[in-house]
């Protein structure tokens, strides 16, 4: 036998590898915050046309803050001091740019090195950035629940709810936990909680709920549970949090757009997405700009939830 | 008897007898396959530790502050960005924290023994290969892993150092009593679960030990008798009928 055609003998007719049409996204926390009253109540507005990049949010003690005083018939009532305060939120620019060359774009077969992909990325990145900023504020409340260097338990989670209720925080609440914190609570419910919790509808829902990070099945009615990889650590502990309306304030800005054909507004104008051509280099930049700021609101309207980071 | 042939040279020499000369070859496996992978811990910005009088905990028999962070993240917690350079400007964030009762811990406030030889004193450090990551010198991260561990013995020394140098005040007695109440309630809840879940027993024992630490600290203190938050004696007869 001779001249058999084998794979190794037709090297000029084959290539070492071809690109699959399947693309694996690298792991990242891409989850957007849910539409929740905490964020609706905490939205301080847009800085556009306001004269400053800092928004001051007033706090006022009305609508039942001061009770009526008992006054003797025929005598004058004394003035009641109006309690007020404020918090501020500083809005800054958040931007990024991908700049592929013409050659990189023209040979691209994946569809990932083109304007549509970069535009979608801009929108997802905006929501992920906001989630990371919120996570970095939720650890700031001075009231802390949970046990240092120990796994988070369902009991700790209940403590957080109780703490907010004692502080007169109006529901519903929003909680943000690191994935390992949520996993520890789930394990606690599954293995160490009593029957009332373990076999309740909420407990079963927790165990049968969809896995993955982001929005989770609620453990308690009225408390939205969100897990995020952006939850920070300190001293060997994760510091998540829970808050009600007033616990967070945030602001943004509409990026000025003057009709430039190389720019488009995305996400209701929260993002200005631009094409920036550098002709002499054969490069095209896809630039996205947004303006965001997040701060703690009323300290007592939130609680930090601490547990072991391992 | 035929003459004996001479013995062949030893194998190590034989190769050089009649073959082409050369030298040792160390294969280059290419790319990064031989490189030490960097840590997979998510990126984190620089920060300053801050302490609050209400944020204390007890851990492994020690009273510890639950330190917060003023983060160098423009747009978060009042941190701004410099209009010219774009670099974080944390002045407003510091001020906001101090107005809220926090004490900022200077970055160089660490025990001398904790400073890296030949480097500036700082409780912050960078990680090789990860310019986006700044961690405390008490955090330990590992190549190729997303695990963060705390060097607990040194962390405890650092926290003790902050108190002993007066950087932060020790916890007030009312803070300790609040912790005690919470821990006792937590102990009772976990002890009830330990009846059906024996794995919880060790945790209950640890909580008991932490309770003992707080009780001992409270017993050690001699509190001057005083009104909880100052003030004057109040006579309701005079106030309402005088």
Walkthrough of the structure:
With 310 residues, chain A is α+β, with helices and mostly antiparallel strands. Chain A has 7 helices and 15 strands. In chain A, strands 5, 6, 7, 8, 9, 10 and 15 form a 7-stranded mixed sheet that branches. In chain A, strand 12 (263-266) and strand 13 form a beta hairpin. The radius of gyration of chain A is 26 Å and the shape is flat. The mean pLDDT of chain A is 91. With 242 residues, chain B is an alpha+beta fold. Chain B is built from 6 helices and 11 strands. Chain B has a 3-stranded antiparallel sheet, covered by helices on one side. Chains A and B meet through strand 3, strand 4, helix 3, strand 5 and helix 4 of A and strand 2, strand 4, strand 5, strand 11 and helix 3 of B.
Short description:
The complex is a heterodimer of chains A (310) and B (242). With 310 residues, chain A is an alpha+beta fold. Helix content of chain A is 24%, strand content 30%.
Q: Main β-sheet of chain B, in a few words?
A: 3 strands, antiparallel
Portion of residues in beta strands of chain A equals 25-35%
Counting helices, strands and paired strands, the structural category of chain A is alpha+beta
Nearest-integer average pLDDT of chain A: 91
Largest sheet of chain A: 7 strands, mixed
Order of helices and strands of chain A: HEEEEHHEHEHHHEEEEEEEEE
- Please give the radius of gyration of chain B in angstroms: 31 Å
Give the assembly state of these chains. heterodimer
Number of strands of chain A: 15
SS element count, helices of chain A: 7
Give the helix proportion of chain B (percent range).
Answer: 25-40%
Low-confidence stretches of chain B: none
Number of helices of chain B: 6
Helix-and-strand structural type of chain B? alpha+beta
Radius of gyration of chain A: 26 Å
Largest binding interface between chains: A-B, 49 and 51 residues
Distance between the termini of chain A: 64 Å
